Amino acid sequence: MQKKGGMFISFEGSEGAGKSTQIRLLEEYLLAQGRIVRVVREPGGTSLGEDVRQILKHAAYGASLGAEAELLLFAASRAQLVREVVSPALDQGQMVLSDRFTDSSVVYQGWGRELSVDFIEVLNRFATRGTVPDLTVLLDLPVEEGLLRARQRGGKADRMESMENAFYERVRAGYLNLAAADPGRFLVMDARLPQAAIAAKIREEIRKREESEHA
After folding, report:
1. CA 203 to each of CA 9, 70, 145, 195, 211: distance values in angstroms, whole numbers, following the listed order
2. φ/ψ (deg, to 5) at 13
3. Residue 74 phi/psi, 5° resolution?
4. Which whole number is the average pLDDT over 127-155?
5. Is residue 3's pLDDT more than 60?
6. What domain range is 26 assigned to?
7. Residue 2 has what pLDDT?
8. C-beta separation of 139 from 191 below 8 A
9. How many Å apart are CA 132 and CA 137, to the nearest integer?
């Protein structure tokens, strides 16, 4: 039986920051605590979302995909994910861990692609029906180190991993700006710290928030 109510936790960060590792470690911890956990990713998580993921990351025509089309595809995937998976899981009291959410569109398509951040925020609210993570873990890493880590993983870089460094510098600046503007939601972690130390801090933050909720 699940011990406490649900929580929506998103993980953000640029390439090579270690989101997948921290999501896996947190999922293992929560399951061991008897929690019900749902892990999702963006784009993806539904049949529609996985098709969109293929288009955005791997399609042969991806190089010619416009920034506006890219933004709207992300929004479509996100809308379906919230309706089909995230909202029902939270209604059932599950812990939802999301590899990226609305902040990614603000920084990648807004700060990175230089589309209107104000419009993206309105689009995000529409697509998610106002759903906002209870906690957003931002794994911050210098751009050069993040790209080096991403290359060391091996395999062919996908479309979103193949931009120039200046793009990723804008993305990092966007993330830090969002975190500074909403410190109550964000937990900013130096992604250069040992994985175990980062994981422990995330667990501690979740405990603090749940204790505060039930005080």
Report:
1. 11, 34, 25, 12, 12
2. 155, 160
3. -60, -45
4. 92
5. no
6. 7-213
7. 38
8. yes
9. 13
Angle at 111 between CA 105 and CA 114, to 5 degrees: 100
Q: Kindly state whether residue 137 falls inside one of the protein's structural domains.
A: yes
Q: Higher-confidence residue: 52 or 154?
A: 52
Residue at 16 is within a domain: yes
- The dihedral through the CA atoms of 132, 133, 139, 144 has a sign that is negative
Q: Which helix (H) or strand (E) holds 116?
A: none
Q: What total number of domains does the chain contain?
A: 1
Residue 2 lies in a domain: no
Task: Indicate whether 1 belongs to any domain.
Answer: no
**Euclidean distance between CA atoms 142 and 3, whole angstroms:** 38
* CATH code assigned at 199: 3.40.50.300
φ/ψ of residue 188, rounded to 5: -95, 125
Rounded to the nearest 5°, which phi and psi values hold at 95? -90, 120
What integer pLDDT is reported at residue 15 of this predicted model? 87
User: Given phi > 0 = left and psi -120 to 50 = alpha, else beta, which region is 162?
Assistant: alpha
Q: How confident is the model over 25-45, as pLDDT tens digits?
A: 999 999 999 999 999 999 999
Residues 186, 156: Cα–Cα separation, whole Å? 31
Q: 9: which strand partners?
A: 97, 135
Unique residue bearing structure tokens 């951040």: 117
For residue 98, is pLDDT > 70? yes
Q: Exposure of 62 by Cβ count < 10 A (0-12 exposed, 13-18 middle, 19+ buried)?
A: middle
Please tell me the pTM assigned to this model: 0.94
